C-alpha cells in the first residue's frame, strides 16, 4: 500500500474515479497505484501536480530510478569485489589492447602469478603495444602504512618484491617500462586502450576484497579521463626500477 498516495488523495478529496478521469486512465490503474505500484513516468508528474506534491513525496524510489538513468554510460560494470572479476575478463581486457596497457598497483601479484596473463602482456609488447607498469616501492613508507592498514604488516613489501621477480621477463621487451611509486593509492588501475578496471582501495581491507569499476572511454565522458589523469600524475612522479629489479 502506498500510504503517502492514499493520504494525499484523501487530503485533496479526490477519489480513484476522479483521478482516473483527470489523467485519462482506467480506475483499476489508479487502484493499483494506491496498492503500491509505481506509475509510469508519464503519469507520475501529472498525478503529483494534481495532488500539489513532488514526485519523490509520493514515490521515494523515483530518486533511485533517476540515479540509475543518470549513471554515465562510461560505466560498463561494477563488481562488489575484485575477486569476482573472472580470469576470462582480465584476458579479454588485455587482449583488446592495440596501443597501450597501463597498470598501477602496489603489487598486482594476482596478475604476476598467472603465467598466461604475463605471457599475454609479453605478446602484446612484442606486437608493438606500449606496456607501463607502476608498482609500489617496497621500501616506501606508504607501502608500510598500507601493510599495517590491511593488517598484513611487511607482507605487502614481500608481495611487491615477489611480483617484481615475476614481471622481470617482461622488461626484456621493447616498449615495456617499469617504475616504482611512493604514492598513497586510493585505487589500482588496469587500462587497455579505451577500457580500464579501477580497483577501489577500502581502508582495512585488501584490494582483492574491494569493489572494481569497469569503465570505457566515451566522447564527452569524464570518468575515464579523470582516472587516466590520476595515472599520469603517479607515472610522472614514479622512478625507474633500476637496482630493485635485477
Automatic annotation (TrEMBL):
SUPFAM superfamilies named in the record: lambda repressor-like DNA-binding domains (SSF47413), Phospholipase D/nuclease (SSF56024)
Coiled coil start-end: none
Record protein name field: XRE family transcriptional regulator
Native species: Kribbella lupini
Amino acid at each position: 500500500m502506498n500510504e503517502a498516495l492514499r493520504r494525499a488523495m484523501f487530503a485533496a478529496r479526490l477519489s480513484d474515479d476522479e483521478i482516473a478521469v483527470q489523467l485519462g486512465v482506467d480506475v483499476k490503474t489508479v487502484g493499483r497505484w494506491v496498492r503500491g505500484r509505481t506509475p509510469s513516468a508519464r503519469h507520475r508528474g501529472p498525478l503529483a501536480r494534481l495532488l500539489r506534491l513532488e514526485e519523490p513525496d509520493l514515490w521515494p524510489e523515483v530518486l533511485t530510478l533517476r540515479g540509475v538513468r543518470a549513471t554515465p554510460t562510461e560505466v560498463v560494470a561494477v563488481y562488489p569485489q575484485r575477486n569476482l572479476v573472472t580470469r576470462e575478463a582480465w584476458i579479454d581486457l588485455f587482449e583488446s589492447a592495440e596501443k597501450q596497457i597501463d597498470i598501477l598497483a602496489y603489487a598486482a601479484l594476482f596478475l604476476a602469478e598467472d603465467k598466461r596473463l604475463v605471457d599475454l602482456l609479453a605478446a602484446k609488447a612484442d606486437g608493438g603495444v606500449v606496456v607501463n607498469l607502476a608498482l609500489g616501492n617496497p621500501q616506501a613508507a606508504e607501502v608500510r602504512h598500507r601493510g599495517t592498514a590491511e593488517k598484513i604488516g611487511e607482507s605487502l613489501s614481500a608481495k611487491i618484491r615477489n611480483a617484481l621477480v615475476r614481471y622481470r621477463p617482461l622488461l626484456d621487451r621493447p616498449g615495456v617500462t617499469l617504475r616504482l611509486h611512493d604514492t598513497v593509492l586510493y585505487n589500482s588501475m588496469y587500462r587497455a586502450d579505451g577500457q580500464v578496471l579501477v580497483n577501489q582501495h577500502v581502508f582495512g581491507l585488501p584490494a582483492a576484497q574491494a569493489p572494481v569499476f569497469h569503465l570505457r572511454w566515451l566522447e564527452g565522458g569524464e570518468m575515464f579521463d579523470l582516472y587516466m589523469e590520476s595515472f599520469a600524475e603517479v607515472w610522472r612522479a614514479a622512478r625507474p626500477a633500476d637496482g630493485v629489479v635485477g
